[in-house]
Amino acid sequence: MTDPDRRQLLGHFVRTHRESLAPERAGGRRRTPGLRREELAAKAGISPTWCAFIEQGRDVQVSAPALSRLAQALALTRAERAYLFELADRRDPEAPAPAETADAPASLQAAVAAIADPAYGLDRLWNACCWNEAAEHLFVGWLSEGCERNLLRFVFTEPAARKLIHNWKDRARRLLAEFRADYSRSLNDPRLRAMVDGLRRDSALFDGEWNAQTVLGREGGLRTFMHPDDGVLAFTQYSYAPADRPDYKLVLLVPQNADGARS
After folding, report:
1. Domain count of the fold of the chain
2. Is the whole model's pTM more than 0.85, yes or no?
3. pLDDT at 14
C-alpha cells in the first residue's frame, strides 16, 4: 500500500467514525451527521484544521499521543484503535502486552501436531514452545531432551549447531537480522533485553552482528543440514504467524532434494 493510499484510508476511517457518533447536544439544525469536525477536534485536543487534514488524507505526521486522544474521542474498540494506529504507521503506547502463557497457543500446537514434516513453534523470545517428532529428530542438540530451547542461543553458542547447520556463520547472521525485526516490537520486555545481553556476552559473532544493525524480514528458502545419522538433508522453510497470536511463529520445513526439488 502506498502512503497516499494509507492516508486516504485513515481519513475515511476517521470521518466515518466521527459521523457515526451522536452529538452530546442534539439541538438545532445540523447539516453534518454525527459530530462536527470542530466537536471531534475539541474532544481530541487537536485543532479543527489538523482534524480536517487527517480526514482529507493530507501528508501530515500525527503523533502517537494525538492518535491516542483521537481514538478515545471516537470511542474506538480495541480492534478499531489498533487499525487506526496501523493506518497512521505509529506504535500505540497503550497497546496491551501479549498475554504471557506457559504453553504455546492451542492453534499453534494443533498445526504443529497435524504436520508430518518437521515443524515447530517459536514464542516472542524465539524459544521453541512446541514441535513434532520430525523436528525433534532433525534438530539434534536443540529439540532433543535436556537441550537449550532458545533458537538464538542454540545457533550462536552450541557446538552442535555448527555441525548441524550447513554454512553456519551465514545462516547465523541471517537469523539474527531476522530476529532484530521482532526485537523492535518488544523493546520494553526486560526478558528480551536480558537475553540479548547474555548472547552478546557469550558469543563474539552475535555481539559483532548486533552492532552491525542489520534488519531483515523472516523469509523462507532452502535450508541444508548435516545430520549425524541421516547425512545431508535439504528443506524449504516456510514461516507463518497464527492469526490469534501473531507474536508466535509456526516454522515448517518441507523436504527437498539438494537441488531444491521436492523430494
Report:
1. 2
2. no
3. 94
